[in-house]
UniProtKB/TrEMBL annotation:
Entry similarity comment: Belongs to the fasciclin-like AGP family.
Protein's cellular compartments: Secreted
Species annotation: Dioscorea zingiberensis
Gene Ontology CC: extracellular region
Name of this protein: FAS1 domain-containing protein
Record-linked SUPFAM superfamilies: FAS1 domain (SSF82153)
Signal sequence, start to end: 1-24
PANTHER family from the UniProt entry: FASCICLIN-LIKE ARABINOGALACTAN PROTEIN 16 (PTHR32499)
UniProt keyword Glycoprotein present: yes
Length: 456
């Protein structure tokens, strides 16, 4: 009897505990979903469609702005509408300086604000286009409207591809241009103003010319297209053993000539002309001469290029090219800081016989002379004929094809080693003047020349 009662009490206690656990399980075993937490993004999401769509420039900016997680949360919480600028608007039509500003690591916040300004946390279909303001994920507003021609607009940008991508959790509309919020535009203007101010020296501060290492004097303004004031050797960048030529920048040059385009054009002409691929390859890939030549031409200097053909370049040995800076030094010797055509050089050598042209390989010069109805450069076995005249002439750069690679002449040996020594016992015979020779001839006629030692 006692054991039955004890068993009944134990069974009752177990039942009560079980009921209490069941009643408490909904609150403890299933925690509430935190507010704002996004759901699982599936393959049919509008965000996945954006990354796989033809709006590649916008998708690339989204990844660079590190906004994938933020957009996943937004898509998981509610439907979204994305206004996607076409690729041309971000690739060609966008100001390069503004694009460079957006991609700088220090301006990540501005890039994120710009991207989120194109996303509205609501579904806006083209068939129910409202005329109202909508808040974006950047906590700013976009004004949607329709003009008289039934063209849908987002602020000042027209919708060129309505409903370009439609998904259950959102829609993408293609627009013609990038939408820039006021805050990002102000950040860009502020950064550009600071950069301009920091580049200005205080009034009265001494300024040293990095080329001549002398104090700069205020120069009178020169008219556009006037020749440069500095010699070309002072304007050249440091040699290859010191530093490479500086890359072109937005503030370099006098902006009278687009030297970089002209150098690119003449190298392209070499390739199309045929037979000068090695020369073009050295200029573009093995040296920084193309950049330096473009900068010099932009500053108003002129150049004549003596271009060896492929057959001549093929005769160069590995030993001649193995030393550091050897390709640069070879090419420097083929650059003349003058503008010469085949006609001008031929007329000069016909008139003066031999012409010594300065080269950019200081202090060596190249000798030109007339030979076989053409111009011949160099001396002896290292000479080269001008046989492809005026390959490229644009008033700034002249390219003349030659059939050999030119090298500066070797240093001449000293005079003591070049002239043979005469024996010390041999006395030099005194040289008679013209008057003495006539007198000796007259004395010889009378048989009296033997009486003068100077006539013997």
């Amino acid at each position: 009897m006692g054991s039955f009662i004890n068993g009944g009490v134990l069974l009752l206690l177990l039942t009560l505990v079980t009921l209490a656990t069941i009643s408490a399980s909904p609150a403890t075993a299933l925690p509430e979903k935190p507010a704002g937490a996004g759901g699982q993004i599936n393959s049919n999401s509008v965000l996945v469609a954006l990354l796989d769509s033809h709006y590649t420039e916008l998708a690339e900016l989204v990844e660079k702005a590190l906004l994938l997680h933020t957009l996943e949360d937004a898509v998981g919480a509610h439907n979204v509408t994305i206004f996607a600028p076409r690729n041309e608007a971000l690739e060609r039509d966008l100001d390069p300086e503004f694009k460079r500003f957006l991609l700088e690591p220090g301006n990540l916040k501005s890039l994120q604000t710009l991207i989120l300004f194109h996303v509205v946390p609501a579904r806006i279909a083209s068939h129910s286009w409202p005329s109202s303001r909508h808040r974006t994920l950047a906590n700013d507003h976009l004004h949607l409207s329709t003009d008289k021609g039934s063209v849908k607009k987002v602020d000042l940008a027209a919708v060129v591809h309505p409903d370009a991508v439609v998904r259950p959790d959102g829609v993408i509309h293609g627009i013609e241009r990038l939408l820039v919020p006021r805050s990002v535009q102000e950040d860009f203007n502020r950064r550009r103003s600071l950069a301009a101010i920091s580049a200005v020296l205080p009034t009265g501060a001494p300024e040293v010319d990095p080329r001549t290492h002398r104090l700069k004097k205020p120069a009178s303004p020169a008219p556009a297209g006037s020749p440069p004031a500095l010699p070309i050797y002072d304007a050249m960048a440091p040699g290859p053993a010191i530093a490479p030529a500086p890359a072109p920048g937005p503030g370099s040059g006098k902006h009278h000539f687009d030297g970089h385009s002209q150098v690119k054009d003449f190298i392209q002409t070499l390739l199309l002309y045929g037979g000068y691929n090695e020369m073009a390859d050295i200029l573009v890939n093995l040296t920084s001469l193309a950049t330096e030549m473009g900068r010099l031409v932009s500053e108003g200097y002129v150049l004549t290029v003596l271009a060896p053909n492929d057959e001549a370049m093929g005769r160069l040995t590995a030993e001649q090219l193995s030393e550091p800076g050897a390709p640069e030094q070879i090419m420097y010797y083929h650059l003349i800081p003058e503008y010469q055509t085949e006609e001008s050089m031929y007329n000069a050598v016909r008139r003066f016989g031999r012409i010594r042209y300065d080269t950019l390989r200081i202090p060596h010069k190249v000798v030109a002379r007339e030979a076989d109805g053409s111009v011949k450069f160099g001396q002896a076995e290292g000479s080269a004929y001008l046989f492809d005249p005026d390959i490229y002439t644009d008033g700034r750069i002249s390219v003349q094809g030659i059939d050999n690679v030119l090298f500066p002449p070797d240093e001449e040996p000293p005079a003591s080693a070049r002239l043979p020594r005469k024996p010390l016992t041999q006395q030099p015979k005194p040289r008679r003047g013209k008057l003495m020779e006539v007198a000796c001839q007259m004395l010889g006629a009378f048989g009296q020349s033997s009486r003068f030692t100077t006539c013997q």
